[in-house]
Amino acid sequence: MDWNKTYNSITYDLKRSSKLYKESDDPDQRRACVNNHLKVIKYLESILEGNVPEFYQGSLKALLEMSRKEHTIMEKEVDHIKKVVVDGGAGGKGGDKDKEKLAEGMLETILSEKPNVKWEDIAGLFEAKKSLNEALIMPVKYPDFFKGNVQPWKGILLYGPPGTGKTFLAKACATECESTFFSVSSSDLMSKYLGESEKLIKELFKAANEKAPSIIFIDEIDSMCGNRSEGENESSRRVKTEFLVQMQGVGTKNDKVLVLGATNLPWALDPAVRRRFERRVYIPLPDFEARRYLIRHKLKGLDQHLKDEDIKHIAERTDGFSGADIEILLRDAAFEPLHLAQSTDKFRRVNVGGKTKFIPMPQNSGGPDIVKSRVYDLPDGSLQLPDITREDLLRATQRAKPSVSKNDLAQYEDWTKQFGMSD
Question: d(Cα 344, Cα 65) in Å, to the nearest integer?
């Protein structure tokens, strides 16, 4: 079974039924969406009852828990349909309804479920963690310290190569900090209708102020706040102006709102936007210690046959890899036992908890416990995959390639010398 494909397929089906449910105002159609949602949950439960690789168990269990909660809410509100009445008559009622609709849209960007990412899950990045602690945790724990000119940071920009943990840091903020977390992208704030984007930005900051202390996380902020130029269209210019005013403009007071931006292209940001991010923190490629920690952490539960020397050797060979590159490498290595099961016809019979299991072995294996069979002919749920070995990691390392070039790194380092800061 292709577990990555299975996970993506289940996630797609859950999101699709949830989306159709929210968009429909027909009670029968909404009930059908609830039933489809339940069918996918039952299918996910049946998969988890089988022999799921430990590498995927955590993700599938988290998905199951989240979908169960969502199904409970859907079932409870299946007949409670919110109707939006557009009234363009006297008294500005239509405008009020439009404002309510915009406000509801912004409230949907609040993360109600914590992503379950802790600070200790993040390898290295001490300067970024320190800045986020100063902006989020310290003001809550020690409010007496932040008086007069000593104020918490209102804007932090996380920049660096793709796959280094910028979004992961934001997830840790959402988990660790007792603040309302708004996760938005440029698509949430941009609209084809004239003046709508500015209203969305204004409603976002208004909602953040009402639910303060709060964090507004904008991923890929360069796509919305790029450099202003003469050939730029008027609507795009107005969007940037509104964003600048809301962040730090006359008449705006966002004392308990932190704007957290993430970008792979910091040099593409407008200078005025760059200035409003008071802390610009470079998120570099992981160093040796960070790579070693990351490898050990990601292989937790699958590393019984790995020594510290093995982990150290792989960390040395992955110099220049991003965190995402290393995760892909480890996922590739985790498939090695499955590849062996598909290619061999020798399996060793073992007893695990009173149940007969079959462990794939190389073709030249022999002994009284060896059974000759194809993996597809084994009884359901009887396949026992071995833990990852040093050889599995080495084979995956030979196939893996870094996704960030040296020229890209030089560009980030030059920008950091001019405008940023790093560990």
Answer: 36
